[in-house]
């Protein structure tokens, strides 16, 4: 299958996603510049991590005006798969493709660390190879990962099983100690109602190889590939 | 140069924690490095953070960045070919940073605050765009030379490029993009606005270069051309405002031969003798105190703020002897480290300089890398003072002698003088950054103990020495004595043996003994692993005082652990390399026990070590 990786000015994890898809999972991958007016034929779009437009104003707030966003919206409405990682998640929120907002971490500091996630929904194209309630270890690296949504939105997210990942302790318990940024309800990843758009703060592309000491991120990419098989 | 930056390290020096500004500066500097480094997508994979009152008025921030380039695609800052266009790219020029480099070359006094306008204002986002755009333009066949505009901005970059090319450059200042109105030619030539580059391009390729930089929303302007008269000529609205031989400002700068004299303080500090020092009776308390000393304590608070994983190459995270990254598309790895114990350099700059190199190499060897080369950042006080000039000469001699013996060339570097506030200089701080290669990344090594039952061996020799140690400073409040001795033959024997046993897959961990001595090194072996703690029972029979045995900082020592079955093979390799060694204990249990002196739960030690910095900030 073919992945398209959107490159915004300031994207940093574009090459990392490309590497995992191309060299580890042996799938097709190509970069798409944010000023393009149309999308090439692809099966899945990735909005990678980084600091699009320097995170000025708010992370993702300027990127949502990039010319390519119009095409990305169309792609989403037509059921195309979109995975937003870290800054990509922030852009999806700003663009209204996913509900809620990101606030600055409660520590008021950038945090780079390995954290644990509990898989809350394995019936999405991004998680179908995962075990429901299973714990994954993944790196995070962000300044603004403090997810927030109002009560009504949160209720909708719960009712529609849109909460896909929550920060947890090593044993799977959802605790405040295990919450690295203050995110509401320990939310670290959500999808839209239709299940074709997923945003997540942790970086699956950073933990998909044995030499890096962790392969828990592979399940995300393998699920996507499986959903197209 | 044409290289993509793949990893950074930093060496930070702050004043003591009881100085009112230290916490503010620590927060600001670490936040600043995080803000810039994370944004440009270059992982900060390691470094060092020291605290000493000698930096109360002058903190040091040294950064090392490693790039990867194919050797046939290296670009240089050179202007060749008369008639070739000179192109300015990057940010617009403002009034920030005028005289920035000169300010950094002056002593500070109570009026230093007035010089704030001479500080440059950086913008990491523009830097990221400039980085990507430069790499894109370099992948085409149109660049003759390229140099960044750093100290003295446009003046320095144009003169140096012309001088290296044996050419001249004519610049028209009316073409320089600017962010402020009314800037004078003087200001334009000396502005140190960040994120700017000067390019010399093959004639006829102007359009192609312009398109690349416009794609990345950067300013690009043909500001002049290469000439063959060897002069830097500056035009402004058709009027010539400066003309000077380019070489006069670069190659032909004066060489200072300043007077040198051994400083007087040394006769006082070197009088110190451990015979007058009471031997402690309660070691556990001292051990915990040392683990909580900011210089020894875990630096997680610092590196958790740095993205140390982006680019997905980081194999060994910060907090180890050396950072290890893999090189994609090969089986190779690279290890890198920064080192300098400035207290040693203060007490004997020659020995301190040697130890900085030896320890850096030892750190790399512990990770399984063969040391290749160093670069340095030489931070000193006012060189017009004969004592400082003497320190400078001694320290560089020490670095030079050690590099010759260890076969690690000094391939670059940087000098920072005048680090003084109200006449008080910092300790001489010649920071050494060293890079080594790991031929097979799967054979890299880490510092923590792996399995219960493994044998613990110490490579090297311990002596009765405490001068300049962290123990002496933290527990007795004394920064005196001679730094530990360094014997390069022994150093090389130990390093060769260690590297060979790692490359043959005989050992399971290797850790250098440095600040805090063998006790601290053993503690780190017990608790620094990412997944679990390990205990250890250690018996060291040396005919030296208890405090020297535990906390002395004798050089050229490495603690390794291995399966008992490999002991014969290990001995054979150590003996072949003439490396002395001693079997000192076994991995196992939940406590660290050293002789009859220390017996503590590993988790207690770990918490003390891990929380010390966090509690202070």
Descriptive notes:
The complex is a heterodimer of chains A (229) and B (617). With 229 residues, chain A is an alpha/beta fold. Helix content of chain A is 21%, strand content 26%. Chain A is built from five helices and eleven strands. Chain A has helices at 14-24, 68-77, 87-94, 151-159, 218-228, and strands spanning 2-7, 28-33, 44-47, 81-85, 101-103, 111-119, 135-142, 146-148, 163-168, 187-191, 197-200. A nine-stranded mixed sheet of chain A has the order 2-1-3-4-11-10-9-6-7, sandwiched between helices. The longest helix of chain A is centred in the first third of the chain and has 11 residues, at 14-24. Chain A is globular, with a radius of gyration of 16 Å. The relative contact order of chain A is 0.17. The mean pLDDT of chain A is 97. In chain B, strands 5-7-4-8-6-9-10 form a seven-stranded mixed sheet. In chain B, helix 12 packs parallel to helix 15, helix 15 packs antiparallel against helix 18 and helix 16 crosses helix 19 (602-616). In chain B, strand 16 (420-421) and strand 17 (424-425) form a beta hairpin. Helices cover 32% and strands 24% of the residues of chain B. Chain B is globular, with a radius of gyration of 26 Å. The chains are: A alpha/beta (229), B alpha+beta (617). The interface between A and B is medium-sized, with 34 and 33 residues.
- Overall radius of gyration of chain B: 26 Å
Strand content of chain A: 25-35%
Strand order of the largest sheet of chain B: 5-7-4-8-6-9-10
CATH superfamily of the largest domain in chain B: PurM-like, N-terminal domain
Low-confidence blocks of residues of chain B: none
Total number of strands of chain A: 11
Question: What is the CATH third-level topology name of the largest domain in chain B?
Answer: 60s Ribosomal Protein L30, Chain: A
Compute the number of strand runs of chain B.
Answer: 25
Rounded average pLDDT of chain B: 94
Q: Structural class from helices and strands of chain B?
A: alpha+beta
The shape of chain B, in one word, is: globular
Question: N- to C-terminal separation of chain B?
Answer: 39 Å
Considering DSSP H and I runs of 4 or more, what fraction of the residues of chain A is helical? 10-25%
Poorly predicted tracts of residues of chain A: none
Approximately how much beta-strand content do the residues of chain B carry?
15-25%
Helical/strand content category of chain A: alpha/beta
Number of continuous helical runs of chain B: 19
Oligomer: heterodimer
